[in-house]
Specification:
- The chain folds into 2 domains: about 1-10 and about 385-495, Golgi alpha-mannosidase II (Immunoglobulin-like); about 15-375, Glycosidases (TIM Barrel).
- About 25% of the residues lie in helices and about 25% in strands.
- The protein contains 10 helices and 25 strands.
- It is globular.
- The structure holds alpha-L-arabinofuranose.
- Alpha-L-arabinofuranose binds near residues 70 and 71.
Length: about 500
């Protein structure tokens, strides 16, 4: 089949905020213990951080990591996780039915962020706790000295403030599974007061209001409008969460799920702008898509209740999952003007691109690769390409273009990148590329992930599903042609000669 993509430097969507390539570490399963932190592991450093895991995270180039939850945060007492480690209490952790040992807490996370070359995105507990504890945590993290909580941090051995810029106001507060879930009005008021106090402690921080837990909640829409209406002046972003699965083993439908994501993002933008209009405000609320991924392989796996760091949500991803992750990232980039933050949920072991064995090695899951390639090369501005592609119908969607693609233009480095998925399960695609205004550019790389069974997975010592290089397409004037394999994720990069 034939498809066409036309790009022009003038067709900008918006500049890509690096925080679009964020991720997430929750106190859940083996994300922390046995994941990023494992004292005694042969590859752990003197602080217990696994260096092999840090290396893989560096490969992904993750600018922010959300922490400590997730559902976990709604019952978390941050004070349990600071101070002398041997005096920290183990706690019953009600979100996931385990025991939290509190060996790793706020300061360990901040140190780990420094070593992993990333920045913290902290969440506060607006479930069992509220504005008072939230402002105390901001004071503990960000105030220099001469106050109860900043002096507490100094007494704990950390003289300099951590200067955490980004703060989530709770997590999924409309979910009945959330500790102390709230109505939109209850939440809006609590979040507003918390954000107000947190910003009074440190006026330089940014806050993220919880949107509905997913667009399939009955609360979706009204929740956003109500909470935004109350908290508008004290918040900067609203959160979105979405996971997709392929329980029905229907690849064509699974690969089209990002059409739903696109619609979801558009709906939330509309609600934000509705509230803005209603308030006659000049302030624009942007989107923090702080949980997104494929998640389903591990649902319901048994674990021992009240154990510490059991295997939980350990999805092992396959090739088609990687294609869906690529499509989701393409959609996020398509909204680069409004989606300023996004977090792949999560980073290590728990529905994650990096998988470890406690006491053993680590490997890159299939989903690692599209994230890495786009984090590395989607720089500068996202461009709105004109796409002509044959389409198909599937169970849940009609008119699904076989070609899913986005382009980026890094003006500073004279580089254009195209990220493209061929959704066809059986047909190659001859892709006509028109680079309007990019005369003199030549192809410098054509990488792809293709040729695998949709259910093929990676494992320890066998990262069979990966990217490979292809012959470079020749650019003639402003035109090039590339052949995209059936079921493929492709990265085409062009540079000024
Ligand atoms: O990422 C796993 C869980 O999914 C998070 O704890 C929660 O916020 C969401 O429901």
């Amino acid at each position: 089949m034939k498809a066409k993509i036309t790009l022009a430097a003038e067709m900008k969507i918006g500049s890509i905020d690096r925080r679009m390539f964020g991720s997430f570490i929750e106190h859940l399963g083996r994300a922390v213990y046995g994941g990023i932190y494992e004292p005694g592991h042969p590859l752990a450093d003197e602080e217990g951080f696994r260096k092999d895991v840090i290396e893989l995270i560096n490969e992904l180039d993750v600018p922010i990591v959300r922490y400590p939850g997730g559902n976990f945060v709604s019952g978390y007492n941050w004070e349990d996780g600071v101070g002398p480690v041997d005096q920290r209490p183990p706690r019953l952790e009600l979100a996931w039915g385990v025991t939290e040992p509190n060996k790793f807490g706020t300061n360990e996370f901040m140190r780990w962020c420094q070593k992993a070359k990333t920045s913290p995105m902290m969440a506060v507990n607006l479930g069992t706790r509220g504005p008072d504890e939230a402002r105390a945590l901001v004071e503990y993290c960000n105030h220099k000295n001469n106050s109860k909580y900043s002096d507490m941090r100094i007494a704990h051995g950390y003289k300099d403030p951590w200067n955490v810029k980004l703060w989530c106001l709770g997590n999924e507060m409309d979910g009945p599974w959330q500790m102390c879930a709230k109505t939109a009005t209850e939440y809006g008021r609590t979040a507003n007061e918390a954000a107000k106090l947190m910003k009074w402690v440190d006026g330089s921080i940014e806050t993220v209001l919880c949107g509905s837990s997913s667009r399939y909640m009955n609360t979706f829409g009204d929740w956003e409008a109500t909470a935004l209406d109350i908290a508008y002046d004290n918040i900067d972003y609203i959160s979105l969460h979405q996971y997709y699965d392929n329980h029905s083993r229907d690849t064509k439908t699974f690969l089209a799920k990002n059409l739903d994501l696109d619609d979801f993002i558009y709906s939330v933008i509309c609600v934000c702008d509705f509230v803005k209009a209603k308030k006659r405000s000049k302030k624009q609320i942007n989107l923090s898509f702080d949980e997104w991924n494929v998640w389903y392989h591990s649902n319901g796996a048994p674990f021992e209740r009240w154990s510490t760091a059991p295997d939980q949500l350990e999805d092992i991803y396959n090739f088609e999952d990687a294609l869906v992750v690529a499509c989701m990232l393409i959609t996020l980039l398509r909204h680069a003007d409004r989606v300023k933050i996004a977090c792949l949920a999560q980073l290590v072991n728990v529905i994650a691109p990096i998988f470890t064995k406690t006491g053993g090695g680590a490997f890159r899951q299939t989903t690692f690769y599209p994230f890495r390639e786009m984090s590395k090369y989607a720089r500068g501005d996202a461009l709105r390409p004109i796409i002509t592609s044959p389409k198909y119908d599937c169970k849940d969607y009609t008119d699904v273009p076989y070609l899913e693609a986005i382009a980026t233009y890094d003006e500073e480095n004279d580089e254009v990148a195209i990220f493209a998925v061929n959704r066809s399960t059986d047909e190659k695609m001859e892709l006509d590329i028109s680079l309007l205004g990019f005369e003199g550019y030549r192809a410098v790389e054509f990488e792809s992930m293709d040729g695998y069974d949709v259910y093929k997975e990676n494992t320890f010592g066998d990262e069979g599903v990966t990217m490979h290089q292809n012959p470079l397409p020749k650019v003639d004037g402003s035109s090039a042609v590339a052949e995209l394999q059936p079921l493929s994720f492709n990265v085409l990069r062009f540079k000024k000669a």
